[in-house]
Amino acid sequence: MGIPSLYLNQRDIIYCANDPVGSRTQIDLPSDYGMSNYEQVKIVTKDKLNLDAYLIKKEEIGLYTNTKSRIGTTILFLHGNAGNMGHRLPIARILYNLFDCNILMLSYRGYGRSEGSPSEKGLKMDVDAAMEFLKQNPTTKNTKIVVYGQSIGGAVAIDTAYRYKEIDAMIVENTFTSLPDVVECMFPYVWFIRYFIKDSWASKNKIGSISVPMLFLSGRKDSLVPPKHMLELVTIARNNGGESKVTFKEFENGNHNDTCTQFGYFESIQSWWENLGL
């Protein structure tokens, strides 16, 4: 693919909403994975797009009083750049079983059955709408909120924790310092194309300002996003007063898309979660 084509088609390359085939129409349900207490909801963005989402509810939510410490926790699940939210339901099921928490799984604009086309500006508006939904919904409005993001979803999670004081903690997996940095790594001989990337997702400029507890999960054999990106983000966070807030876990054999299958992955999340009392 030539440089002009890369420039013109960059968002289709970055946001692979049609990969694998059927990702826009074939979306598994939480009930397919044993999570029957859920709602399929439509979330409307500021620019009037309808987003598809699943709100998976903790079973005993109605027994608790109206305080954050008693009512529990909600995970805002922010998926990677390919597929749809249904592809992440196996991960959601494990988190749900471990923590008995609510999970809001969001299909970004242009993904699954959500309307629109993805972009950095658009995905930020999607998160704005999701956060408003969490604030207003009776099930989630008084819960703690943990953002969990994989790959580009990690960049979305970092931006969300940077912009919203309502976020109580953050988990990111195999994410990058910025999109231009990734492009330069992928195309070192035409490094200058980094200056023509429309969406920056400059996490390295935001991570130092985030004060909530952060868990970084990094696959050492990531062949898409070099692991040095995660290490740089961790270093920036620690150097900006976040030493006690940062937990960094590496998985020796983890590649970009299979780190969540590595031994100790969910145990690391569980230990971190329990130490925080979420």
From TrEMBL:
- Tell me the protein's name: AB hydrolase-1 domain-containing protein
The record ties this protein, via PANTHER family, to: ALPHA/BETA HYDROLASE DOMAIN-CONTAINING PROTEIN, PROTEIN ABHD13
Q: Which GO terms describe its cellular component?
A: membrane
The record ties this protein, via Pfam families, to: Abhydrolase_1 (PF00561)
Question: In which domain of life is the source organism classified?
Answer: Eukaryota
GO MF terms listed in the record are: palmitoyl-(protein) hydrolase activity
* Residue span(s) of domain AB hydrolase-1: 74-177
Q: Which InterPro entries match?
A: AB_hydrolase_1 (IPR000073), AB_hydrolase_fold (IPR029058)
